[in-house]
UniProtKB/TrEMBL annotation:
<feature type="domain" description="ABC transmembrane type-1">
    <location>
        <begin position="407"/>
        <end position="602"/>
    </location>
</feature>
<comment type="similarity">
    <text>Belongs to the binding-protein-dependent transport system permease family.</text>
</comment>
<keyword id="KW-1133">Transmembrane helix</keyword>
<keyword id="KW-1003">Cell membrane</keyword>
<dbReference type="GO" id="GO:0055085">
    <property type="term" value="P:transmembrane transport"/>
</dbReference>
<feature type="transmembrane region" description="Helical">
    <location>
        <begin position="299"/>
        <end position="319"/>
    </location>
</feature>
<feature type="transmembrane region" description="Helical">
    <location>
        <begin position="472"/>
        <end position="491"/>
    </location>
</feature>
<dbReference type="Pfam" id="PF00528">
    <property type="entry name" value="BPD_transp_1"/>
</dbReference>
<keyword id="KW-0813">Transport</keyword>
<dbReference type="InterPro" id="IPR000515">
    <property type="entry name" value="MetI-like"/>
</dbReference>
<keyword id="KW-0472">Membrane</keyword>
<feature type="transmembrane region" description="Helical">
    <location>
        <begin position="257"/>
        <end position="279"/>
    </location>
</feature>
<feature type="transmembrane region" description="Helical">
    <location>
        <begin position="196"/>
        <end position="216"/>
    </location>
</feature>
<feature type="transmembrane region" description="Helical">
    <location>
        <begin position="445"/>
        <end position="466"/>
    </location>
</feature>
<feature type="transmembrane region" description="Helical">
    <location>
        <begin position="349"/>
        <end position="376"/>
    </location>
</feature>
<feature type="transmembrane region" description="Helical">
    <location>
        <begin position="154"/>
        <end position="176"/>
    </location>
</feature>
<feature type="transmembrane region" description="Helical">
    <location>
        <begin position="414"/>
        <end position="433"/>
    </location>
</feature>
Amino acid sequence: MGNGGRSGGPGAHGAPAIRSRQEAKAAPGGGHRAGSAGAWAGSPGPATAGAAVPHRRLRRLVPYLAVLPLALILGGYVIYPLWATFVTSLQAGGRFSLDHYRAFFDRQYTAPMEALVTSLGISLLSVLLAGFVGVSLAFLLNRLEFPGRRLLQTLVLVPISLPPLVGVLSFMFLYGESGIVPRALQHLLGLEQVPFALRGIAGVLAVHTFTMYPFFYMTTATALQGLDPSLEEAARSLGATGWQVWRRVTMPMLTPALVAGSLLVFMQSMASYTAPLLFGVDRTLTMQIYVARTNGDLAMASAFSSVLSMVSIAFLFFMRWYQDRRVYRSLSKGVAYHRAEVRSPLLRWAAMVLSVLGTVLVLLPVFVLVLVSFSVNARWTVQVLPPEYTLENYAAIFSDPRFWEPVRTSLETSFLATVAAALFSVAAAYVVLRLPIRGRGLLDAAIMLPWALPGTVVAINLIAAFNQPGPLTLGRVLVGTFWILPLAYFVRLMPLVFRSTAAALAQQDPSLEEVARSLGATWLYSFRRVVLPLMMPGVLGGALLAFVEGIGEFVASILLYTPDNVPISVEIFRRMYSFEFGTATAYGVLQIVLILIVLGISNRLHGGGRAPAVI
C-alpha cells in the first residue's frame, strides 16, 4: 500500500505540479508555449480552449493555402486554355454556334471525318507495330544470352535521342523516293525507277514503328526483369503448352507494361505532325489543325483540337479501365529470371547475325544524318550518296552568330520551361504526397492532363487563351512573342518533371521529416536540409529529360514561333524546305549531340543504366 501511496501521491499532486511549471514558463516569452501545452494535455481553461479552436482551424487551412498558387497556375495555364479553345470552337460570327462541329461531322464535307479516321487508324496501327517490335526485342534481349546481347541492349535505345523532325528526315534520306537505299537498289539492279520508296501512310507507319518501339521495349524489359519465372515453370509442370503459358501467364502479367507503352505510342502518334507532313498525308487531325490555323480560321482549328483532345483522353480512360479490371501482381517469392544461353552452334550464329543486323538497322539513321551533314548544299540530286563533302556546314553554325541563334533560342526556352516545371513539380509533389488535403487525386489528374494532349492541341489552347490581354499575362498579348514558347514547353513538360519528382518523394519515409521537426527544426529548415536533398535525384532526372524534350520539340513550336524566335527544330524544317540538306542535318546532328549529353548525365544520376523513375 506504501507503494500505492507513493504512486497515488504524484497522481494527486502531478497536475498542480505541472501547472505550476507552466505558470513559471508563462513569464514573458513563454505564454504561447504554455497555452499550446495545456491544449495538448486536454485540460485547458475556458480561455485557452477558446484560443485553441481558431488556431486549429488556421492550421487546417494552411495546406489549402499552399495549394492555392498551384491551383492558380494549373487553372490559368492548363484548364483555362483548354476551356478557351472549346469556347472558341463554339463561336461563329460572334455568337454561340455548333456550325464547326456540324461541319466536322457533315457527310458532304468529308475532310474532317477522314482526318479523324486516318489519325485513329495510324495511331492504332502504330501501337500494334511498335508493340510487336518492342516486345519482340525485349524478349530476345532479356530472355536469351548470346554474343552481342549487351551491346545491342544499349544500341536499341538510340532512337530515343532522335527528335521527331530529325528522325523523319533520317528515314526520308534512307528510304524516301530519292533515298539512299532505293537509289542503290535501282543502280545495282539496273532499273529505270526505284523499286520501292516510303511514302504516304506506309512511310508514317514505318517512322512511328522504328522511332516509338523503345516505349514498349523499356516498359516490357522492366516488367520481364521483375517477372517471377516460377509462375511459368508451374504452368509448364501442369501440362501447359508454350502458347498457353504465353497467353495465360506471361501476357497477363505484362499487361501494365503493355498499357503504359500503348498509351505513350498512341499519344505520340495522335500528336504526330512531322511524319504526315513530310510523307504527304494531309488528312490527319494535326495537319488539319495546322491548315486551319495558317488560314486564320482559329475557330475551326479549335474544333479540330477539341475533338483530338477528347479522343486522346477517351483512350487514356479506356486503357486505364482495361488495366484496372484485374490485379496483375504476383504473391510468390520467386527469384529473378535467369537468361537461357544459346548452346546450339546454328542458333548461336543466327543470334550473332541478328545482333549485327539489329545494330546496323538501329544506327543507320544516325550514320546517314552524320554523312549528309558533311554534304554540299544543292549538290546531291539523283546520286546514291552525296557527291561532294565539306566542313562548311559546321563552320557556319559555330562561326556565324546568325546560324547560332536557333540553338540559343531552343536552349533558352527549354531552360526557362524546365526551371519553371522543376519549381512547380517540387511544390506539387509535396502537396500531393505529404499534405492532408482533400482532392489530391484531382490535383494529380490536372497536372497530368497535358500529357494526354498532343502538342498541336496545347499550342491551339494557348493561342485561343492568350491572343488578347488578360490578368494572367499582366495585360499583354503573349501570342507572337518570345514568352509563348517557354510557356508552351512548360505546359508540355510539367507532367514529366512532376512524375519523376513524385516518384522520388514517394520513396522517402515521412518519419525522416518528422524526426527533424521533433528536434526543433522549422518546416522550412527540415524541407531544405532533409526532404529536398532526397528528392533532388528525381527532380534533376525529370528536369534533364524535360530539357531534352524541349530541345527537340517541334509540333507546338511550328504553330507558335515568330521570325525573331526560331527554335532549332523549326530552323531544320526551314532549311530542309530550302534544299539546304547539309545545313539542316548539321543542325540535326548538333541537336542529337546535345540530347545525348543530357541523357548521359541523366543516366548517371539514375544509377548508371537503370531506367528513370518517370518511366
